[in-house]
Design a protein that fits this description.
226 residues, alpha+beta, Immunoglobulin-like, 7-stranded antiparallel β-sheet, 3 helices, 12 strands, elongated, Basal-body rod modification protein FlgD, cilium, FlgD/Vpr_Ig-like, cell projection, bacterial flagellum biogenesis
Length: 226
């Protein structure tokens, strides 16, 4: 049998081995790669041996791929550990208040409602309009002239006679005055955290369940923890 035919049959054998290995696993491990490399060495043409540079390149490529795989595994483990730590930390928020982007909050007996306005630019006058659960206008919280940035405010839940309004869900609207015009601005209000959950989606986010709402809020959207 000529060397050319021998090379041809040897090549077929190698291809068959490769096909068998592919059926067993879609990923080539270190042991499988070394076996394939040894097989190539054993079956190479002695009159035309494979260049050492090619073997080195193959080893370097495999080493690089193995390093990336190990790195991905390490990063995945770190991400899982970080999520667990975040979930544990977030669990301490249960029973506390956080400020999220919304236009209403619950007034509890003997307590106040805190909020933060995100003012994009300076304004001659900033105020918050307060509305009762039935939509009745109750008055304004005047914050005066303010520069751009975050502005904290608090509503004590008292009327002009110092009497407490009944408990319930009150609405708020924040405005900034520019050139005599009132422009609505983003506002964050305090809400009670009832429970914490880990989102099963791709992001694996920490989600907060808030009182009076069926829609959980991602922890990353919390503006202030009261």
């Amino acid at each position: 049998m000529s060397i050319e035919k021998t090379d041809f049959y040897q090549s077929l054998q190698i291809q068959q081995r490769n096909a068998d290995q592919a059926k067993k696993s879609n990923e080539m491990g270190k042991q499988e790669f070394m076996r394939l490399l040894v097989t190539q060495l054993e079956n190479q043409d002695p009159l035309n041996p494979q260049d050492n540079t090619e073997f080195i390149a193959q080893l370097a490529q495999f080493s690089s791929l193995e390093g990336i795989t190990n790195l991905n595994t390490t990063v995945g483990q770190f991400a899982t550990s970080l999520q667990s730590t975040q979930a544990l930390q977030a669990s301490t928020l249960v029973g506390r208040q956080v400020q999220v982007l919304t236009n209403w909050s619950e007034l509890e007996p003997g307590k106040s409602i805190k909020g933060t306005i995100d003012l994009p630019k300076s304004a001659g006058d900033v105020f918050v309009a307060v509305y009762a659960p039935n939509g009745e206008y109750l008055g304004d919280i005047s914050l005066g002239s303010r520069g751009a940035g975050e502005i904290s405010f608090e509503w004590d839940g008292l009327d002009t006679d110092g009497e407490s309004f009944p408990a319930g869900a009150y609405q708020f609207r924040a405005y900034a005055t520019h050139n005599g015009e009132h422009e609505a601005v983003d506002m964050y209000l305090s809400r009670n955290v009832t429970s914490v959950a880990l989102n099963a989606g791709a992001r694996g986010e920490i989600m907060l369940n808030l009182s009076g709402s069926d829609t959980p809020v991602p922890l990353r959207e919390v503006k202030v923890i009261n």
